[in-house]
Amino acid sequence: MSDKLIKALAYNDEIRVYVVDATEMVKEAQRRHDSWNTATAALGRAMIGSTLLASGEKGDSKLTVRIDGNGPIGYIVVDSNAKGDTKGYIHNPQVSLELNENGKLDVRGAVGTEGNLIVTKDIGMKEPFVGQVPLISGELGEDFTYYLANSEQIPSAVGLSVLVNPDETVRTAGGFMIQVLPGASEKTLVSLEKTIANLPLVSDLMDSGKTPEDLLEMLADEGNPRIIDEQPVQFKCDCSKERFANSLVSLGEDDLKEMIEQDHGAEAVCHFCRTKYTFTEDELKEILSEIQELNK
After folding, report:
1. How far is the C-alpha of 141 from the C-alpha of 45, rounded, in Å?
2. Is this prediction's pTM over 0.90?
3. Would you say 5 and 20 are in contact if contact means Cβ atoms under 8 Å apart?
């Protein structure tokens, strides 16, 4: 079943609610990076959070989320766009920690509690928008919530959840983002806080067969949700051999000559999807001659 994101309004349009099933997306990321359970949960949560953030953007907008913590996984980088395409990678994917005190995957221990969450948005302007907040939790849901409140001044609640099988594959992955719109009543806010506090983990709900529509009903809690849009979401990388060839052009003549004379070729690997691109000696010579032409 393909992944899906639902956008809705609830509580007489006082609240915006986004719900996403990202199971296949996170499965694909785990498969490509051969990540271990705690690293998978951290990467998956970062990808779900980025997908939810990007879904609120318009048109061709895209954003990059970088999480720099002091935990053993190192940094996480995720690219998402408003069309539902997301790709991500983790500096050290082979991390598996003991379960935390709640018997859950210790994402906080893997990410760390010191560092930053940085969001760079390309919305077609000359300069991208960059927002940065310190990590306040390392669990990531709270960190995305803190980012929205501080960098974008939107009171929000973000829930991110990944369930990993004993064989390291992803069982379920999903999340939600609730945003308070201007003019929301105190009664609505109290009701919403109570609902969120009593909500089980999204991945557990999905594991029991709940659909994004079911989750929306639970989050709205009789707040009469009104679905305004649905869109597919997926792991999608836009790398290509041509892009890597352009990167080789930017290396300069000396580095290329070294590759030709010493290595007799080159191999490039995409960080995001692990696809390998091989350049033969002849292809490198062709790129070198292009550079020499440009420098004439």
Report:
1. 8
2. yes
3. yes
Angle at alpha carbon of residue 67, lines to 65 and 68, rounded to 5°: 140
Q: Residue 35 has what pLDDT? A: 98
Residues 6+ apart with CB under 8 A from 37: 96, 105, 164, 168
pLDDT at 1: 64
Domains of the chain by start residue, with CATH: 4-235 (3.55.30.10), 241-294 (3.90.1280.10)
Q: How far is CA 148 from CA 63, 76, 106, 154, 195, in A?
A: 14, 19, 24, 5, 20
Q: Which residues, given as ranges, of the chain have pLDDT below 70?
A: 1
**Residue from 247, 206, 185, 156 nearest 23 by CA:** 206
Report how far apart the first and last C-alpha atoms of the chain are (Å, whole number): 55
Q: Are 288 and 256 in contact (CB under 8 A)?
A: yes
CA 97 to CA 171: how far, in whole Å?
A: 18
